[in-house]
Structure formats: structure tokens, C-alpha cells
Amino acid sequence: MNCEDLMNIPKIYSGMKLIAGGSGMYRNIRWIYFADCTQCLSDDFKVSQLIHGGELVIVTNAALTDNDDKMLSMIVEMNQKNIAGLVINVGQISPMLTEYCNDNELPLFELSYDLHLIDLSQIVCKALVEEESNTNSIDQLLAAIIYSSNINDADIKIRAGYLGTNISDKNHIVVLKLNKNNKLQDSYENLQRYIRYEFKNYGLQKMLMLWQIDTGIMLIPSELFSRDLLSNILTRIIDHIRSYYGVDAKAGIGSAYEYISELKKSFQEALNSIKISHSESKSQKVFFYDNLGIYSLIAQIKNDKFLDEYVNNHIGKLIQSDVLQEGDLCKTLEAYLDHNCNAAAAAEHLFIHRNTMRYRMDKIKKILCCELDDLDVYLELKMAFEIKNYRESQKDQS
Length: 398
Description:
Belongs to the CdaR family. Helices cover 52% and strands 13% of the residues. It is of the alpha/beta class.
């Protein structure tokens, strides 16, 4: 639940008014914290010691709200711990605090005397507990979809309906993979809320999402999200993760399937997309399985020994030559194949002289004992390099 969700609760909306920081309504609420203790007035008291992040902070003590300097100092300190918002009694909000909250996108609410604190705390805490329970049920439902061997489409749709979400038409499975980082361990809850908020902005009110260590798994209806829109949202999420947590991430998107029982396939495709991504552009962040061409075919082959033997049988001698002589023959041949057997274009790509290119190609032909202008040979060598890159990317991830 974020601050915007909070204000959609009728009893809250009628008794609380947004005063400042409206652009920060996306902030997620983790719990409530009452900052009315007398010790808060002490100069040596550090309120940040009691703040974990995500709290909706309530201040009603006039001794605090009447002291602009102390109040602002305390709010700045709490905002550094990423509190969700600030609630203050009507008539106790200073212009200085309003200005700070607007500048820092910190939601500031004015609390009416008609909404008693006990009622406010009960409403918010009940909503948070219900949300937690609902989230756990959603986790279990998605886990059943992607891991259970025998599932009934009709039963899953009924269960989804009870949870307030609808599974119909075609759906993708999206996997968001983060680089392992122990420092992020306490931030996964906030990250999940941010992801849900991003998709909610585009009409996905309740998203099926499951989080496992450093991997987020989401069910996304293809009817709501075009490929471009989905790519843009995921790129924004990945940029957010990098900016706020200093962690790199990639997203893999499986094909869209109509039947729920087929979504296990979409899940595996999404995982394969991320595995294959290491063979693609290093700057790319979002990968659609059906855009990966030959790699999607290679990923279906589970026999690693077979793949390695294929590489060794076709370009193994060339690889060994490069190792012994510290050469660039593999790199040269791959560039030659990538440029449709155009030696001049390959030489330009490699920034080498044409005579150097000609010398290397002659050497390659002798080592491999083959004619490179033969179409069958071209296809075999091209496949060998694709498999080589794929297998190297797998080893990089292990």
C-alpha cells in the first residue's frame, strides 16, 4: 500500500487532506510510527534510530510542531531513512515544513480532529495486514502456476478471482534477475511495492508476483501491455534498481500463452532469455524470448556435452591455435562470417589491413581444412560460434 492507496480508503479520505509533496504519493507504507515522545525534543535524541524506512509518521505534539527548527531537523533526518509520509494535526503545519515536503516529494497530510488517532491507526494497520495476507496468497498462486505439474485452468482462474485479479486471454511470464547483493536483502519488500506501483499506473491493479532471493517473477497480461510499453516499464524499473540500490538487473520475457497450463513454458523461456542475454548486447536490459533467434533454439538443447563437442568438432583446432600462439583467428573468422564472408568488411570491422586479413584467412583455411565459400561449411561454422558464445555466457553466470 502506498500513500495514494491510503487516500483511496473512504474513512481516510474524509478525515485527512494532502497538503504538500503530492509527487511522492508513490511512496510505500510499511507501518505507522507516532513521533510524539517528549524525548524527541532533546537535542541529543536521534529519531533515525527508531526509523527503518517506509513508516507513515504521525506528529500531534504541539511542543514539536510549534518548534520549526526542531521539527524540520527531525523530518529531514527521518526522510533520509525513506519514510512514507507525514501526518500532522490541522492547524499545526508550518509554511517551512510545507515547502520542504514539496521540494523533497514527501507527502504531507493534515489530520482532521474528526478522524481520531485510534481509528486512523486501526484502519491503516488492518489494511496493511490484509495486503500482506493477500500478497502471500498471490505468491502461492503464481508458484502453483509455474511449478505445479498438474494444474486446472478453471480452478486457477477462480482462485485468482477471489484475490481480486483476473487471468484471461494471453499472458507472459517476466523474470527480473538482479545481480546478487547482500546489501539489498532488507529492501526487497520496498522494491516489490515499487514494481507493483509501476504496473498499476498502466491499469494492472493487482499483479501476480513472486519473489525468490534475487529473482522477481511476474505474470503480465499481453492485452494490457504492448511490447514497447512492457520494455519501457521494465527498463525504468531496472534503472531505478541501479540508481537506488547500486545493483544491475536484467529482465527476460517469455512468449505469451492463452492457457494457464502453458505458462510454465513462458517461465522457462524467460529464464533462458536472461541466460542468453550474456551473448547479446551488454547494454541491453530487456530480452524477449521470441527475439533471440538461433539462441532460443540452442537453449532448448539440455545436453551441454553435445554442444561442447559440436564446437570442438568444427572450430576446436582454431581455438587451440589461438591458445598456443595467442592469436586472433577465432575472432577473425567470426567477423568474416558475421559480414557474410566479405573479407574487406570484416577487416574494416577488426581495424586491420586487408593483407593481414588475407594472411589470417589463409591460415584459418589450412587449420580447418575446408573451403569457407561452401554454404554448408558456412552454416556449420556459424552455428559453432553461436554455441561457443552461448556456452561461455553460461559459464560466466555460474
